[in-house]
Queue: 4 jobs
Job 1
Amino acid sequence: MTRLAAMISSNAFADEAVGYLPSLMSVALRLTRSQAESEDLVQETFVKAVRAEQKFEPGTNMKAWLLKILTNTFINRYRRGNLEKSIVDGPQASPMLDGWMSTASMGAMRDPESTALRPILEKEIREALESLPEDFRVVVLLSDVEEMSYKEIAEIIDRPIGTVMSRLHRGRQLLKAQLVEHARAMGILPDEPPTAEATAPVDMAAYRARRARSA
Amino acid sequence: MNPCPRYGGWVETYVDGELLPEHVVEFEDHLGDCSHCCEGIRFEEARRQSTRRAVQSAVAITPEFQARLRAAMDQARSCEPEVPRLLPRHAGKDRGGLPPGALGWRAVIPLSVAAAAAMVFAQVQNEGRKDAPLAEVDMSMVPRRVSLASTATTDTMTSVESFLDELTQYYSHAEHPFATGTLPVAVSASQRMPRNQLLPEVAAPLEAPELSALGAVWEGGHLRQSRQGRTTNWHYRVGGHRVVVSIYDSQRVPLRVLLEPRVARNKAVFVGTRHNYAVAAVESNGVGLAATTDLTPYETAELVAAAVH
C-alpha cells in the first residue's frame, strides 16, 4: 500500500470511528455524570483507538471495540480498588424486590398517554441510572441503550456471560424500584398493599443461595 | 395479581432476544395464558425505550468538542513512530547528526506551502509596489480558517472559470516544470527557474525537502504570471502520481464559487473536476491552496486538507 493510500485508509478508520461518537458520549456521560469528564473520557478513548488502529480487525464490530476501550479507560482512570466487591451485599440488595410489581402497576407505568409527564420521567430515569452502582450501570447502558448482546457485553467488560446476566437483572430491578417509588410519589401509581409473597418472612438461606448462583 | 412464578424470570431474557431457541417456543406458548408476563414484556420494552430516549436526548456534542477530538486524533496519528519526520535537506552540507531524510507526508507540503503562501500573501500586500522586495516567511499567514463561498459576479465567475482551466491545462502540459513548449495563451510571462534560483526569488528561507525516503520526488517550483495574478506551483510526484500544489490569490479568483464544498479532516475543502483532473482547494485570508492531480476528488481533497494546519 502506498503511503498515500495508507493515509487515506487511516482517515477512513477515523471517520468511521467518529461516526460512533454519539453512542460513546451517551455511555460516557452516564458513567462519569459530568459533561466535561465525559468529553475527556471520550477523547482519551479515540486517541487510544487511533494508536491501536492496527489491532482493529476490519469488518468486525467497531462500536463494540470502541466501547471496550472506553469502558476499560473508565475503569482504570476513575476507579481503583476491588471492583469485584459484591454490590448485592449492600442495602440495595432487597430480597423483597423480585417479582412484586403487579400487572396493573406495570401498565400504569408504561402508559403512553402520560406524555405530559415524560420529561419528568426522563429526568428521573437519568438520575436513577446515575445512582446505580457502576458495575450495574455499565451493563444496563450497554444493553438497554446501546442494544448490545450478552456476548458483546461480556467481551467489553471482560466478564462471563453469566455475570452480565446477573448484573443486568440486578441493575434493572434497582432501576424499576426507584422508578416505582417515584411514580408513587407523583401519584402515577396508587399505593397498593404488598403481595402475599412480599409480606411473607424472607427466606434468607434461599436468597443467599440464589445470589451465589447468579454471581 | 401475583407474579408469574415459573416464567417471570424469562421476561427480561426474552425481551433481550437471548432466550434459548428451545425456550422461546415454550415461553411464547405460555404468553397466551399469562397476562402478567405479557404486561411484563410491554413494560420492559417501554422502559428501555424511555431509558434510551432519556440518555440520548441529554447528549450534547458541541462543534468545539468535535474539532478538539479531531485534532487529538490527528496528533495521535502524527506521533506514530513509523511515520517519518520531516527533515529539510541542506544540499551539500552536513546534516549535523540528523537521521537520513525520512519525511512525513503530512509535513512535506505544509513546509513548502507555508513559505509559498507567505510569498503570495506578500505579493498581494505589495501590490503596486513592484520594486519592493518580497516579505520573509510569516507563519501567521498560513491559512487556518476557510470562509464559505459568497455571491460572485459574472466577471468573477469568468475569472474563476479561466483560472480552473489554467490549473488543469498547466497540469496536463507541464510534465516537467522546466519543460519547453507553448504555455496557455492567458499566460503573458512565465519564469522557469532552476531550484537553486528559487531562494532569492521567493525571498523565503525555503529549503527543498528531500522526499526520496517516501518514494516521492520534489520536481521543482514554478512561478507563473497570468491574468489571474501570480501563481506558485510546486511539483511533486507521489506514488507514481503527479501532484501540483498551486498557491494563488483567492480574493481575485475564489475557486470556492465553482467547486463543491466538502469536509475533509474537519476542514472546509472545495472540490471538483475539470478536464478529467481533480482540483481541491482551501481558501483563507486571501490565500488559496489548490491541488491538481489525476487522483480521485476525495484523495485530492484529503491531500490539500492535510497540507493546511
Note: Chain A touches chain B through 59 residues (CB under 8 Å).
Job 2
Amino acid sequence: MTQSLTIDIAGLYAAHRLQLVRMAVLLVDDIGSAEDVVHDAFTALHQNQGRVREPAAALGYLRMTVMNNARSVLRKRQTARRHLSLVRLQDAEPADSELMLAAAHQQVLAAVRKLPTRQREVLTLRYWANLSEAEIAETLGISRGAVKSNASRGMDKLETMLGDVR
Amino acid sequence: MNRQTEDRLRAAFDAKAEQVTDERLDRLAAQRRQLLTEDLDDAEGSDDFPAIPGFTDFTDFEPVGPGGAVTRLDIDIDHPAGSSRHARWFAPVLAAAAVIAVAVGVAAVSTVADNGKRAPAPPATQIDTPAPSLTPTPDNTPPAPEPTSNGSTAVTAPYLPRGQQGSRSQVPWSAVGPGWRLLKPAGDLSTTLYLYNPVGGRYLISDQLPPQAQLLAWSPDGERALLSTAGRYDQLRLRSGQLDTGPQLEDTSFLTYTQPRGLAMLFHHGDSAGKFSLRRYALDGTLQLTYPTTIKGVAGEVAGSGLYTADGSALVVGINPVGLITATAPPTPGLVLLGNDGHLIRRF
C-alpha cells in the first residue's frame, strides 16, 4: 500500500520563511542574499519532494538547503574578491543597519565574520537556532564530534578576539 | 566555554536577526518588482503617469525620488487615468516553479490583507503652479487586478478617484508605493503638502508647513518627507502630520537619504575656502562621516554627488579630474564605490 505524502509548501513558507531568512542573514549578512537563499531552498523542496522521507522532515530539509546555499554564496564572494581589483572589501552593513545595531553587537558580529565558515555555521545553529548537537550534525551533514570541535574552536577564537575573561 | 561570550553571541545574533521583518522583506520584494517594472517600461517606452488635475504644465517640474537626486523635466503631461504600471504592480513577478509562485502569491496576498505593508518608492515633487481647483470627474476606478496563476485575484487598494481630495486619515497607507507621489506647490506662500495616488486622487497631508519650505525628498521607508527652510532640514511624518524640527546645517546641499530606510542623510558641503566634501549626518544633525576628498591611487577629487546602492552598503561617487586637464588630452571623469566608512571598494 503506498502512502500519499503531501508537503504543504505554502504552509511551510508562511510559518517558517521569516525564521529561515533570519538564519540565513546571520551567515550571508545582507538581507537580499538571505532572501534569495531561502527562496531557492523552497524551490528545491518543491522539486525534490519525493526525496523527503516524510512531511515532518521538510523543515529539516529546508534548513539544510539554506545552509548549503548560504555556503555557496560565501564561496562566490571569496572568488569574486580574488578576481576583482579591490583595495579592500568587507561584507558591509547598510548605513542604516549600522545605526540600528548597538556597538557591542557590531563588535561581536564582526568577530563572527572572521571565523571559518563551518565554525560560523555551527555557532549560528547552536546559539541562535538553538538546535541540538544531533540536529546541527544532520543539518550540516557532519558528525556530532565535528559539531563539538567546531563549536569549541569557534568560541575559543571569539573569546580571544573579544577579549572576554574566563 | 565562557558564559559571557555565549551571552554576548546570543544577544548579537538576536539583534541582527530581528532586523529582518516581514515588512522589510515585503519592501525588498516591492523594490525588485519595481525594478522589473521599470525595465519593462523602458523596453515599451511608456510614460503612463496620469494627469494631475490643474497641473498640466510641468515646465518647472522637479521630481525628486525618495533619497535621490533632483532632476528636471520640461514636459506637458496629459494622460488618461489608469496605469499599466499600476496593474503590473499587483502581478506576481517571482520566477519560480508554479507551486512556489502560488505559495508566494498566497503569502503575499495574505501579507497585504493582514499587514497592509508595501514598500514605497515613490517620488516627492514640488511644482511651480497655483493650487488646482478640484472638479468632479467621471468614475475613475483603479484597473482591475490581474489574476494570479491559480485564478484568484490579488487584493485591490481602494483609491480616491481622480480629481477628488481626501484627508490624511483616508490614505490607504498599506497601498502607498510605486506610482504614488508627494507634491508641494512651489512658492513662498504655499504651506501645503499633498499625496497623490496613481489615478490622480489626492490627500492633504499637511497645510502647516513652514513658510518658504522646500520639499527635498521622500524617505526610502516612505514614512517621512524632508523639507528645507533656510538651511534647516526638517522632517514631516506623513502618517501623523507631525513636523520634527531638524538640524541647521550651513554651507550644505542635500543629496540623498541613506538606504535602505533613510536614517541618515548625505550632503555636499562647501567651505569658505572653496573646498568641497561629502558628509553624512544623522537625522539630528550629528556629523557621522566626512568622506575623503582624494583617494589613494585614484587620480582626481571626489565630486559633489553620490548614490547609495539599494541595500545601503556602499556609495557610488563621481571623480572629477581636477588638475589633470591638459590641452591635448582632457581626462574622463570616473566613478568609485566607497564603503560606509569611506574606504575605497573598487574603481569603475
Note: Chain B is about 20% helix and 30% strand.
Job 3
Amino acid sequence: MLGGSSLQICRRSVVGWLCSPLLFATLPSWGESTAAIAQLQQIAVERQLHQQRTWQVLLHYQPTLFGVESLIDDRDFFLAADGKQNPEAELQATIAALFEQPADPNQAPQCRFIARHHWLRQQLADTPAVAAIPRLTCGHYEELKARVAPNGVTLIFPTAHINSPASMFGHTLLRFDSSRTKSPLLSFAVNYAAQTEENNGLLFAIRGLTGLYEGYFSLLRYSDKLKEYSSTENRDIWEYPLNLTAAEVEQLFNHLWELDQIAADYYFFTENCSYQLLTLIEAARPQLQLIDHFTLQAIPVDTIRLLKEERLLTSSHYRPSNVTQIHRLEAELTKSDQDQVVALIDGAITPATFVETSELEPLRQQPILDLAVAMTHYRFSRREYDQATFQRRYLPLLKARSGLGLAVVEEPPRMVADPIQGHLSKRLAVGIGRAAGEPFSHLALRPAYHDLLDAPLGYQVGAAINFFDLELRHYTESNQTKISRFTPLEIHSLAPISPLIHPLSWQVRLSWEELAPESSHYLSQLRVAGGYSRWVGTKLIAFGLLEQELTLASVLEAGYRYRLNGVVGLHGLTIMDRIQVAATLRQPLATLPTQEREGVALELAAQWSGEVNRGIRWRSSYRPPSVTLPAQSGVEHQLEFRYHF
Amino acid sequence: MKKLLVASTALMMISGYAQAHNAGCGLGTEIIGNSDSVMMQAFAATTNGSSGNQTFGITSGTSGCAKPANFVSNDLHEFVAGNMDSLAQDMAQGKGESMETLAELMKVSAQDKPAFFASMQRNFNQIFTNETVTSAQVIDNMVAVLG
C-alpha cells in the first residue's frame, strides 16, 4: 500500500529518475520505516502473535505466579527493557528492531535474531508493510551455516565414568549432521555448560547446584567432544539421530545462533544441559511440549526417554570408550598374552623386540599390541605419563603394530543395553517388616536414581547414586508413624579391578536415622569408605573396603562416635538374570571415644525384578550388641514392593 | 555489549578448545583438561563446566600449528593437528574412524579406500617418522608417500 503510492509519485514526478528501485530499496525513508513499523506492530497485536507458541518458545518464556518470565537471564537477549517478563513488548521491540541498519550488518538485530526475523516475516507475510523490512546480508551467520551445513541433528549421550558417580547422570549434547561432510568427526556439536574457572571441587559443586554459574551454548567439532568424553574421561557414548525435518533442523540452528554468548543461570538439577537442549528441540518443533515435564529435576536419560515417547528417536549407535575397549581386549587374551602386554607397557621389552622374538603368529600379536597401545593412551589420560613419556612409549608400539597388517578377525557385535531401556528414575516402595521385635509397615520415596539391587539393565555395574531417599514407617504395636531414615546422599562406586587396570572402589553415605523403633531420638551418620573390588566369576563382585564412620547423636555421651570399620561384601546378578543380591559384613576395628569392641554387623538383601520398573526386595540385617548405642542392636527384616516411575 | 566486543572482522578468529588446551602440534595433544584432582574431576562432571571460550566462532586455522609445505585444505590440517593420537592409532591398524575421515578429507574415492588404508599402514614409519613429529610433517609425509 505504502510502497505502491510512493512508486506512483516516482513515475509522475519530474525527478522520477531519483526513484530508481535500487535507491528506493536500500534507503527507505525514516517516515516510511516508522509507518511500516507501526503498521506491523498493530497487526501483530491484532493477531496476538506474542501469545503464539513459537514466540513463547523462541524467547524461552515460562509461566510464573504473576505471568511469564524468560528462562534466559542475559540482558542482551531482549530488545525491550522489560522483555524478560513481557512477551508483547518484546515482540513489538523486535519488529521495530528489524528495521535497524547499523554500519556492520552482523550487529543488526535482524542478523542477531535470525529465527525471530524469519518467523515474524512469515507471520506477517500477507501484509504489504512487510516488504519495507530491509533485507540485510548477515555475513557471519551465512558463513557459519555454510561451515556447519546442518541437515540433521543427533542427540549425543555420554554416560557415566565409573569412578565419577557424579557423572553417573550422564550428559547430553547435540550434533549437527552435515550435508557437506560424511564423517561424524567433522560434524559440529552443540554443548551447554556452566562457564567457570573454579578450581575448588566443593565450591564448584555448590555453585553448580544453586544456579551461581552462568551457562552458555558452545559449538565445536564433534571430534573435540569425543576427545574429552571418550578418551580423557573414558565414558561410553550413545548417539540417537533425531527425527527432525530439514526445515526444523534449520530453525534449530537459527535459534541456536540467537543464543550465541547468551547466558542462562545453570542449575545442576533443573536448568542443566539436558533441559536447555530440550528448549532447542522445542524451537525446532514448537508443537512439542518438552520442558514442562521437568520441573523438579531434569535427569539426562529421562529427557532422552521423553524424546523417544515423542517419536523423535529412530535408532541408536553405541560408541565404547577407551576403557571399555581395554576391558574387551583383556577378555580376549590369555593370561600369558596379558603378561606380554604388561611387559610392553612397563618397558620391560621394546615393541620391536617383541615382534621379532615372539613365537606367536602376527594375528595373535595384533591384539597384544592393540591393548598395549590402548593402555598407554589410558595411562596418559590418567596423567601417569607426561607428554614426552607418552610420545616415547606410544610411537614404537604403533610402529610395531603397523608392520603386522590388517586385523582379519571381525569385532564381535556389541551386547550392551541402551540406557534408555533402564528402569525409571523415581522410586516408590511399599512394604512390611519387623524391627527389634516390632512389626511395621513402610513407605519410601526416592527422586533419583539407582542402587545396587535395582534392575541393572542399562546401568553401569557396581555404580549407584541415590539422592534424598525418604523412608517412613508405621509401627503397628506402638501405633506411631515416623521417619525411619532420610538419606540425602549415597554413592557406590565398586569398580572391579581387571588384569591391567586397578581402580579404587569407594562409597559414601550421609544419613539421618531413627535410633530405634520406640525411640524419638535420631542420629546423623557419615560413612566414607575406600578399597578394592573384583569380579567373582562373571556376575558377582566382591569388595573389601576400609571405612570411616562418624555418628552424631544426642544420646551418645560424648555426642559423637567415630569408628574405623572393615567392610567386605558381595553384590551381583545371579539366577536367571532377574535376581540381584548383596551381602555386607561390617566389622569395627577401632572406636572413639569409648574404644568398645563391637562385633560384626551383617546385611543381606536380594531383589527380584519381574521387569525393570517393578521389583520385590527382601532385606535382613543384624547389628551386634553395642555399648555406645544399645538401642541399635538387634535384627531387622523387611519385604517391599518397589515401583519406578 | 558483549556482542560488540566480538571480533568484527569477516572471519571469526576465536579458536576454542584446541588453543586453550593443546600442548603442541604432535602426539599426546588429545588429552584435554587441566591436571585436576580426583575430587575436582568428580565434581567437574556435575556441571560439565568449561573454562574454554564459549562463542560460536570456530577457528579457521589450526590453533597456531605450522602449516604443511603442501597446500591442503584448512579442514584437513585442522583434523590432523587435533587428532594426531587417534589418527596414528588407526593408521597403524589400517582401519578406523580417523582413517575414514582422513580419506574423506583427502577426497579418496570409495573404491580406492582399501588401497589407501593399506598404503598408509605399510608406510607408517615414513609418515609418523619420530616421536616429536608434527601435524604439518605428517601431512607432507603422507603426500610424499601417495606420490
Note: Chain A touches chain B through 82 residues (CB under 8 Å).
Job 4
Amino acid sequence: MVTLGHYLALSGTLFAIGVLGVLVRRNAIVVLMSIELMLNAANLALVACGRFRGSFDGQVAVLIVLTVAAAEAAIGLAIVIAVFRLLEHLDVDRTTILKG
Amino acid sequence: MNGGTVTFAVAAILALGAALAVIWSRSPVYSVIFLILNFFATAVLFLLLGAEFLAAVQILVYAGAIMVLFLFVIMLLNLRRVEHWRRSALAYGGYLLALAVAFELVWRLARGASAAVPARPGPAPVGGIQEIGQLLYTKYLFLFEATSVLLFVAVIGAVVLAKQTGPAVARRARGGVARAEAPAAARTEDRAEERV
C-alpha cells in the first residue's frame, strides 16, 4: 500500500538529486535543468499533501509553481544566451567576470 | 500488491533513474531527453494521486514547452559535450551536501506520514478542473493575476536579455572587459576633439 510517506520520500530524493546537479555540474544549462528537477519534486510533494488533506489547494499551488518555473526557465535561458555571446562558453566555473 | 502499488513503483523508479541520468549525462541534449522522461513519470504519479488535469498540464507545459525551449537554446548555441564535472574539493562538499539533504528530507518527511492516501475528495468531473477553477478564481485570485504580470515581465526580460547590442558586444568578446573600456574612452575623446 502506497502511503503519503512514500510520495514525500520520493519527492525528497528527487529534490536532492536536483541539488546535486546544481552543485556539481559545470554546464549552465544542466544547472537550469536541475533547478527544474527541484521544482518538479516540490510539485509532487504539493499534490501528494493536497490529496492527503482532501483539498485541491495543492493542485492550485502546483499551477502557480509551474507558471513561475516557466518564467524562470525563459529568463534563465536568455541569460545563458547573453553570457554565451560574451564568453563563448557555458562553464560556470570559468564565468568569473564579476570576481573582484 | 495491487496495480496501484506496481504503477507507483515503476513510475518512481523511472523518475529517479531519469533524474540521475539528467545530471549524469555528458551531452546536454541527452539531459533534456531524460528530463522529459522524468516529467512523464511525474505525470503518471499525478494521475495516481487523482490530479488528472495537472498531469495533462505538466506534460503540455513542462515537457512540451519548457523542454522544447531548452532544446532550441542548445541547438542555437551549438553546444558540444565538452564540459566535465567539477573535480575540486567543492564538488565533494556538494556530494556530501546533497546526501545530507536527501537523508534529512526523506527521514523527516517520511517518518511520521504512514497514513494511506485517502479516497478522492468529492465528485471530480474532469480531473478536478472544476474545483481547481473555483479555488483559482476566488481564493487565489491575486496569485493568478500576479502570475500573469510575472509572465509579462518574463517575456519583456527574455527579449531584452537576448537582444544583440551591436559593436560593443563584439569588442568585448575579442578583448575581454578591460579592453572594452579603452576603445569606448577613445571614441568619446575623438568626438570631443571633433566638437572642438
Note: Residues 55 and 193 of chain B are 66 Å apart (CA to CA).
